[in-house]
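Case study: SDR family oxidoreductase.
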Amino acid sequence: MSLFDLSGKVAIVTGSSRGIGRAIAEQMAVQGAKVVISSRKAEACQEVVDAINAKHGAGTAIAVPANISSKEDLQRLVDETNRTFGKIDVLVCNAASNPYYGPMSGVTDEQFRKVLDNNVISNHWLIQMVAPQMIERKDGSIIIVSSIGGLRGSPTIGVYNVSKAADFQLARNLAVEFGPHNVRVNCIAPGLIRTDFARALWEDPERYKLSTQGAPLRRIGEPVEIAGAAVFLASSASTFMTGQAMVVDGGVTI
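Here is what the predicted structure looks like once written out:
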């Protein structure tokens, strides 16, 4: 059996109606997993579900819309997944928000709190809802999609970077707590990826040039290139890896 085989596994992927989250869900389905597509908009989720089921068979994917800022929505996401598939083996906390672009001196309290709530506290909530069954089975993989922004400063996305740095520590700390139960927690730290979420960065020719001229690969990444890292972290290929931040950035941070 392939080390990357996910047959029999059930994965929740938040923010999976587009971009990195969608690519992760699609590639996990390729490897045999049942996947739960979740984002705020039901129609967008269903579109992804229909595409995955058309390719891999009915029942491979289901849609459970949820707003990550709502604890009730997240609990419903977990409950619906358990009701439909009976368990959760893999959790991918991918959904995030960044309502502010500019120096930290200009951010409002409300904007700062929203970033921390959606990018850190919502991950904490969802993990606490899913972890008990993983601990009971002594098997599970939790993946937080962070960012290389959490490794460095920025004059424009500093608030977002603070939240992504917190995600690294969330993974490290939970890896310590869950490790004795064979439940692993890791982060993926993407660089600049061609998604709608990062459109402000890669659509700006000057910023794109600055972002890529020092990158060894001389380009930005594609969503599917992050999906490969997620499949690795979800699968048997990474069973001795926990508490880590896997940087996938075309070499930018080196």
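For the exam, be able to explain this: The chain has a mean pLDDT of 96.
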